[in-house]
Amino acid sequence: MSEMTENESVSEPVKQTKPAEEPEKVRTAPEEFPLRDWIPEWARNPPKIVVRAPGPKSKEIIKIDRDYVSYAYDRCFTFTIDRAAGAAVQDADGNVLLDFSSGIAVQNAGWTHYKVSKAIQEQAGKLIHSMANDAYFDKEAYFAKLLSEISPGKALRGTFFANSGAEAIEAALKLSRYYTKRSEHLAFFGSYHGRIGAGLALTSKLKLRYSYGPMSPGIIFTPFAYCYRCSFKQTYPECSLYCVDYIENQVLAMGGTTGQIASVFVEPIQGEGGYVVPPKEFLPRLRKMCDAQNALLVFDEVQTGFARTGKMFACEHFDTIPDILVMGKALGGGVPLGAIIAKHDIMRKWRPGSHSSTFGGNAITMAAGLAHVQAIVEENLAERAEKLGEYAMKLLREMQQRREIIGDVRGRGLMIGVELVKNQYTKEPHEATNIQGKCWRAGLMTITSGFFGNVFRIAPPLCISKELLERGFEMFEQALKDEEEFLKLGTSAPAGHVGMHV
Asked: Is residue 324 part of a domain?
């Protein structure tokens, strides 16, 4: 079990009992979380496997793709996606899969939400390019107003719209330098902030940085509060957050920087790093440290934002307000969109021309993003994610007791990480690709993360029903059980690309 169970779980672990004896707050009636009425019939009962993937239609497209599309894409699944709705994805050959990825935390309100589709269609018939850098556009203004109203503590005002989360990171870095007149930034091991420019420079994963050095100067990395695998071999809470003490007493005080810290970039819950939830004191300590250094605190909520964690933004779990908040992924509801929003006295420092984007505030992205965020608010998906997340954590912790391969379960809302190990005591990582393939064969789409590729991300669309959540966990546990049997025999499933398992 994790040393920081108390801080990482949405609720306390519940002792396994008979269903009739389960506490009322956990035993949620199935009808309380049904699928939304707008989800079409074909997508209401996944999975449905009709042909061994990749089927003939998928193969035809894959052949063309491999001849003409860049090899840089790191495809997880060997199939051609055709359509999606709710929590279901269908390939070109008619296979329907249950999705536990939300398109990597993009489709929070559900794949192809009808309000988003309608908004795109109506806007496309009227105006596509809004020329927002040179003219005013109504949906951009309304969208910025909404984002301010739902920002943490309603304390942020002034949104700059970009075309992706990575572009938004670039904007945040520029704004922090412009405001502070400093040029150094603190980031964390395990961080992911994008694959271009400043985003890549702030990202610690070696695989993503390989052959692109030297990175932008002035980026200093330090260990994150990853208590299950503490860099300092400490145990929480006895450590008193030594990871923050290290920053204050060594990185800042002993020459790790030149005293020119402009900002600290941090994910409130690490995404690519393994869905790592820090202790409750971590972000407040960073807030206090930034204030003492006259540096800005930047929260990257690209993956954690918009109800994913049971709050509109993950930092609300920690009662900490950033100076700049970065958004992306679910912000657009499926269209490319990123943004930053900041405290007004910081954002207003930018003068006209200080930063710009030809397509920032684009008419189609504004219409889609506004519709998606409105749907998240109106359908109260934060509360839904919180309650379903509590139930999911209960099921996964019970699964952990049965499956030795599960080393840690952590998360908030429907952003849950399941870390696999070869041994629960030594915590030796167990790479997840084979199990991902087993899930795929059964009809469950999953994605992984973590330093060692051994953490499953449980991040289904927030519209998922309780029944489908349980169904997905049944497939997931069967894949874990099969892998454990392979391990006991002293073998493992064939390694390779997930799609090739099918």
From this structure: no
CATH of the domain at 169: 3.40.640.10
Contact 218, 201 (CB under 8 A): no
Q: Is 455 within 8 Å of 275 (Cβ atoms)?
A: yes
Whether residue 69 lies inside any domain: the answer is yes
Q: Is residue 123 part of a domain?
A: no
Residue-wise pLDDT for 235-280, tens only, equals 999 999 999 999 999 999 998 888 899 999 999 999 999 999 999 9
Q: Between vectors from CA 296 to CA 227 and to CA 349, what angle results, nearest 5°?
A: 155
Which of these, 70, 74, 104, lies nearest to 89 by C-alpha position?
104
User: Is cis: bond before 352, omega within 30 of 0?
Assistant: no
Residue 64: both structure tokens together: 């063309």
Strand locations in 291-345, DSSP E?
296-300, 324-327, 338-342
Mark 49-70 as b/e (b = at least 16 C-beta within 10 Å): beeebbbebbeebbeeeeeeee
Question: Rounded CA gap, 262 and 259, in Å?
Answer: 9
Measured CA to CA, the distance from residue 213 to residue 201 in angstroms comes to 9
HSE of 476, CA atoms in CB hemisphere, 13 A: 29
- Average pLDDT of every residue of the chain: 91
Q: Do residues 350 and 431 both lie within one domain? A: no
Tokens standing for residue 333 = 């509801």
Please name which of 54, 84, 82, 83 lies closest in space to residue 66, comparing C-alpha atoms. Answer: 54
- CB neighbours of residue 37 within 10 Å: 6
CATH for 49: 3.90.1150.10
Owner of token pair 């709710």:
86
The dihedrals phi and psi of 222, each to the nearest 5 degrees, come to -145, 155
SS3 percent helix, strand, coil of the chain, rounded to 5, is 40, 15, 45
102: region left, alpha or beta (phi > 0 left; psi from -120 to 50 alpha): left
Does residue 121 form part of some domain?
no
Q: What is each CA distance from 73 to 76, 77, 103, 236, 418, in whole angstroms?
A: 9, 11, 15, 39, 25
What percentage of the chain reaches a pLDDT higher than 70?
91
What pLDDT, in 10s, does the model give residues 442-460?
999 999 999 999 999 999 9
Cis peptide bond upstream of 47, omega within 30: yes
pLDDT in tens, 337-376: 999 999 999 999 999 989 999 999 999 999 999 999 999 9
Specify whether 101 is located in the same domain as 175. no
Contact (Cβ atoms closer than 8 angstroms) between residue 498 and residue 97: no
Q: How far is CA 482 from CA 430, 476, 498, in A?
A: 14, 10, 16
The whole-angstrom distance between residue 128's C-alpha and the CA centroid of its chain comes to 29
Instruction: Determine the distance from the C-alpha atom of residue 469 to the mean position of all C-alpha atoms in its chain, rounded to a whole number.
Output: 18
